[in-house]
UniProtKB/TrEMBL annotation:
This is Fructose-bisphosphate aldolase. PANTHER family: D-TAGATOSE-1,6-BISPHOSPHATE ALDOLASE, D-TAGATOSE-1,6-BISPHOSPHATE ALDOLASE SUBUNIT GATY-RELATED. Pathway: Carbohydrate degradation; glycolysis; D-glyceraldehyde 3-phosphate and glycerone phosphate from D-glucose: step 4/4. Its cofactor is Zn(2+). It catalyses: beta-D-fructose 1,6-bisphosphate = D-glyceraldehyde 3-phosphate + dihydroxyacetone phosphate. It comes from Serpula lacrymans var. lacrymans (strain S7.3) (Dry rot fungus).
Length: 288
């Protein structure tokens, strides 16, 4: 198997085999990383620390090293993933840090803005090859999600994933994790989410045991939709605002009246409790 011993792939493959999902929670600072690790250890759950490129660009090597230490020294398996790396400068930063020994476990090389699959492959492949040399697994997006998140470009012309093209696409890029576009979108859902479960099932039958699937665009989703997506083959679930917003709110309120460490402690616990809820919902609690 390619990239033997890769932490992200090991976590996702076990989840896929045993039919549960893995919380990949966006962390914007050290407090949230600590909150996620606490939640994972309490629940005995594997997890993924998700960083956006804007957070990597802010904290660079020292912050990434902190995240790796916090994740890898935990008593349960936790990987560190770079989400939505699109800009060459962010990819260069992540890969040059890896070449200096500060390596993400996985990165998403997001060339979904490309006009065609072929163009997406041409953009992604050199990064995939360079990442693989450092032992980093790469996630790619086939099709295109609408919307936007922290520091990411805003997309308004979504394209659904065509399962018939997925195997060629994954071979072409050389990537090992797939983020499909099934009607999911980044940010707020204007209409209730209408996910194409048939696309997921099709991808599951093609890729089970080979390429783990990652669900993006999970703001505001009802619990039963998370569960349905896991049943239909998703093993990595990216979560952003669910944890971020209550954490930021609690911190802002706490700082009005409490000491800084007290306010941070309370906000960290709010973040951790959101993470724990998802670990239980996704079925990963007790699996580590
Ligand atoms: Zn995403």
């Amino acid at each position: 198997m390619a990239l033997k011993g890769n932490r992200t792939l090991d976590i996702l493959r076990k989840a896929e085999d045993e039919g549960y999902g893995i919380l990949a929670q966006s962390c914007y600072d050290a407090h949230s990383v600590i909150g996620l690790v606490r939640a994972a250890e309490r629940c005995r759950s594997p997890a993924v620390v998700n960083l956006f490129p804007i957070t990597l660009a802010y904290g660079k090597g020292p912050f990434l090293q902190f995240c790796l230490n916090a994740a890898h020294q935990a008593s349960v398996p936790i990987a560190v993933n770079l989400d939505h790396a699109t800009d060459p400068e962010h990819l260069e930063l992540a890969l040059s840090l890896a070449e200096q020994g500060i390596a993400f476990d996985s990165i998403m090389v997001d060339a979904s803005h490309a006009d065609t699959d072929e163009e997406n492959i041409v953009l992604a492949r050199p990064y995939v090859q360079r990442a693989e040399k450092c032992g980093i697994a790469v996630e790619v997006e086939l099709g295109r999600l609408e919307g936007g998140e922290a520091g990411l470009r805003m997309i308004s012309d979504a394209k659904l994933t065509n399962p018939d093209k997925a195997e060629t696409f994954m071979k072409g890029t050389g990537a090992l994790v797939l983020a499909p576009s099934i009607g999911n979108l980044h940010g707020s859902y204007i209409n209730p989410p209408n996910f194409r479960q048939d696309i997921l099932k099709d991808l599951q039958s093609k890729f089970k045991g080979k390429i783990p699937l990652c669900l993006h665009g999970t703001d505001e989703l009802p619990d039963n939709l998370f569960v349905e997506c896991i049943k239909n083959g998703v093993s990595k679930i990216n979560v952003n605002s669910w944890g971020r917003d209550p954490y930021a709110k609690q911190l802002a309120i706490g700082l009005q009246t409490k000491s800084f460490p007290e306010a941070v402690e309370e906000a960290t616990e709010v973040f951790a409790s959101v993470c724990e809820r998802f670990m239980k919902l996704f079925g990963s609690a007790g699996k580590a």
